[in-house]
Amino acid sequence: MRLSLLPIFVFLMPLAEIAGFIVVGKLIGVWATLGLVILSVVLGAMLLRIQGIGILQRISAESRNGGDPGREMVHGAMIVVAAIFLMLPGFISDIIGLLLFIPAVRDLAWTMLRKRIVVVGNSRAFRRGQAPGAGPQARPRDAGTVVDLDESDFHREPNRNSPWSDRKRLED
């Protein structure tokens, strides 16, 4: 969706949801409509908990194995968005939310978003992955220069004139 269409979408979505309430309310009645709305909130919370824990475990496993957790992170974000859509009152948002809980739909969205998302990490797990040109013979990164200090080299006298000094200044 283009960014210029977002305000139109934000304005028209509540109107479509209200129209959906009217149509469904006429077909099945007011109490059944309210029951469906409450059921979708409970279902959204349960699905977020169940699938969210699984996504977190897969992200952790990918990171631990040195793989790229980008796909799992996008899936996790889509599950959160899907749960929010289910918790919002309205049937159109519920349909969108239920579609996002389907792994095939998330994979389709991932294939469209893959080229636009970059996962950057500074942990050892990210560096262990297969970077271009990195093979089993690749050298680890240089850890930098090591400076060995004795206690006398590291010790310094506190500045008594500093406003952050623990000691009170006598001239105050």
Q: What is the alpha-carbon Rg in Å?
A: 27 Å
- Outline, from the CA principal axes? elongated
- Unreliable stretches (pLDDT < 50, length at least 5) are 125-138
Q: What's the tally of helices?
A: 7
> Mean pLDDT, nearest integer?
78
Number of strands: 0
Structural class: mainly alpha
| SSE pattern, N- to C-terminal | HHHHHHH
Biggest sheet record = none
Strand residues, percent: under 5%
- Percent range of helical residues: 55-70%
Which helices and strands, and how do they pair?
Elements: H1 6-28, H2 30-64, H3 70-87, H4 91-100, H5 103-113, H6 124-128, H7 151-154
Describe what you observe in this structure.
With 172 residues, this protein is an all-alpha fold. The chain has a domain of 108 residues. Helix content is 62%, strand content 0%. The chain is built from seven helices and no strands. The longest helix is centred in the N-terminal third of the chain and has 35 residues. About 8% of the residues have low confidence.
What labels describe this entry?
172 residues; 0% strand; elongated
What's the short story on this structure?
Helices cover 62% and strands 0% of the residues. The protein has helices at 6-28, 30-64, 70-87, 91-100, 103-113, 124-128, 151-154.
